[in-house]
Amino acid sequence: MCRHLAYLGPEEPLGRLLVEPPHSLYTQAWAPRRQRHGTVNADGFGVGWYAPGDPLPARYRRSGPVWADPSFADLARVVRTTALLGAVRDATLPGPDAEAAAAPFAADGLLFSHNGAVTGWPGSLAALSRTLPPQDLLELEARTDSALVWALALARLRAGDPAGQALADTVLEVAAAAPGSRLNLLLTDGGTITATAWGDTLWHLTEPGHRTVVASEPYDDDPHWQEVPDRTLLVASRTDVLLTPLKDPAEDPVPAPSEEPRT
User: Fold this and answer.
1) How far is residue 118's CA from residue 176's CA, in Å, rounded to a whole number?
2) How many structural domains compose the chain?
3) Which CATH number fits the domain that encloses residue 99?
4) Is 228 part of a structural domain of the chain?
5) For 64-88, what is each residue's pLDDT tens digit?
6) CA–CA separation, 39 vs 32, rounded Å?
7) What does the pLDDT look like over 117-143, one tens digit per residue?
8) Is 2 labeled as catalytic in the residue annotation?
9) Catalytic residue chosen out of the listed positions 2, 42, 66, 228
10) Is residue 254 predicted with pLDDT exceeding 50?
């Protein structure tokens, strides 16, 4: 469910990255090629981008399908950026949160998206939610699994954890509480991209020293796209991409009970 994309590189119009490619994020709203769960991403979309000289990103989000918003076409044609995060949201059950449920979420100069689903939501994360300060829960943008996963990751970031550690630990914690969850997370601060591949597809396209794109699926047929293995943490800049395997807590062996010494 859902598709998302993050970009770092030379200044480009939003549309050149999100609309113009033959299999763009815009097209993936109704015709994804590699989506394993869900078929139509029509329950909202959003893009966040960084403007020169301003550390806080701007966002444009809507609750309906991206193809039904003519204002987005104008925005994408004229707004230029060196870093962005865009997402289209899978069709879901009706909810009251409207565009507040659409990624990217934002705080502290960061943009975040979650491609996936938490199994057993909301009960499976009830215990984890109680580890957050009450103020963090009251400030959730939406009553969705993605918003709570973002709050858990943000709490770690605010405690001083590096982005890679914050996302990896959040994924492992949620996966332990809700086995079978799909937890492809995507985070950028405008200078780096951090992501996890956990239960759904993730790809990256890199021209070292020039540009980096991390996306749920390739937006064109460039042969240099590389798929990220499942259960992997990705940390990328314009110059390189680092991949680190993540261990599924469900695969940890259960220790055998120790025998009491016989007398």
Assistant:
1) 11
2) 1
3) 3.60.20.10
4) yes
5) 999 999 999 899 999 999 999 999 9
6) 7
7) 999 999 999 999 999 999 999 999 999
8) yes
9) 2
10) no
